[in-house]
Amino acid sequence: MTRERIYLFDTTLRDGQQTPGIDFSVDDKVAIAAMLDEFGLDYVEGGYPGANPTDTAFFEKKRTKKAGFVAFGMTRRPGVSASNDPGLASLIQSAGDALCLVAKSWDYHVKVALGTTLEENLAAISDSVAAILKSGKQAMIDCEHFFDGYKANPDYALACVKTAYEAGARWVVLCDTNGGSQPSEVERIVLEVIASGVPGTSLGIHAHNDTGQAVANSLAAIEAGARQIQGTLNGIGERCGNANLVTLIPTLALKEVYTSRFETGVTAEKLAGLTELSRAFDEILNRAPYHQSPYVGASAFATKAGIHASALMKDPRTYEHVTPESVGNFRNVMVSDQGGKSNFLNALKRRGIDVAKDDPRLDRLISTVKEREAEGYAYEGADASFELLARRTFSAIPDFFRVDGFRVMVERRFDALGQLKTVSEAVVKLEIEGKTILSVAEGDGPVNALDLALRKDFGCYQQDIADLELTDYKVRILNGGTGAVTRVLIESGDDDGRRWTTVGVSENIIDASFQALYDSILYKLMKNRGLAGPAE
Question: pTM above 0.70?
Answer without folding.
Answer: yes
